[in-house]
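Please go through this protein, sequence plus structure tokens, and consider how the sequence yields the tokens. Keep your notes short.
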Amino acid sequence: MKQNVTFDSAGLKLAGTLFTPDEHSGDRLPAVVVSHPAGGVKEQTASVYAERLAREGFAALVFDAAYQGESEGTPRGLENPFQRAEDVRAAVTYLTTRDDVDPARIGALGICASGGYVPFAAQTDHRIKAVGTVSAADTGDLFRRGLGRTQGPEALEAMLDQAGALRTAEARGEAPVMQNWVPESQEGLEEGTLWREGSEYYYTERGLHCRSNTGWVLRSIDQLAQYDSYALIRLIAPRPLLMIIGSKADTAYFSREAVAEAGDNAELFVVEGATHVDLYDKDEYVTPAVAELTGFFGKHLAA
């Protein structure tokens, strides 16, 4: 079953969907907050995982981040990593108020950029009893150093100069300047890279959604550049952390490094043959990922 819900996050009303098992008997359920990638919406990969977790006996809450999808907030497409983490905490708060959810058995799952936002939120929110990620990426590191850390510091300096000018322009009444997360066309993009995969997912029937904002407000860079998903990841311990990656993902280094830094509470699960975006929706890769998540959350959110 699924139902539309709303809840507040720092004064903004967020739109969500709660998936619950069809055979729910009325007992309080373990629950998992599932947070979508940057530029995505709740109806895409987040719902793929939430619906499958509900089949396995969990309540699973997906939601549109503030400034995105059906949720409130202007300018549309703002990517504030600190607000994104607050949205995760707000989703947990909402679940703790429901009579059909056990507030002592709530976990969280982040996909792509939310694979950074969810652990970041969990570092200081002890109500999150178990933390999972799929194809995690640290947006702060991506903008500071580029994918694969091949970007020189001059690129960030130029973007920060531009961000300041854009804030001034918006204050004078100009519209926010948007930047695509991934190119609209796959032409000229190397096969198997995050950018080509993202283009194929978001701009074709595979992942296309009318509310998916594939652009971000360019001045967001001055907040993204300050953000570090995993700097304090050891604060999650002793609570468990599971990070899932594809063996062919060009973002896999984020999860490998985070697990190594987190401590003995953390584990890495590799889906052989999968790339970063394969784990969004391709059944042959999502199925083993969900099986691993089901065992993980089932063990650590047990009654």
Q: What stands out?
A: The first helix runs from residue 45 to 55. The chain has one domain: 2-300. The first strand starts at residue 2 and ends at 9. Residues 79 and 220 are 6 Å apart (CA to CA).
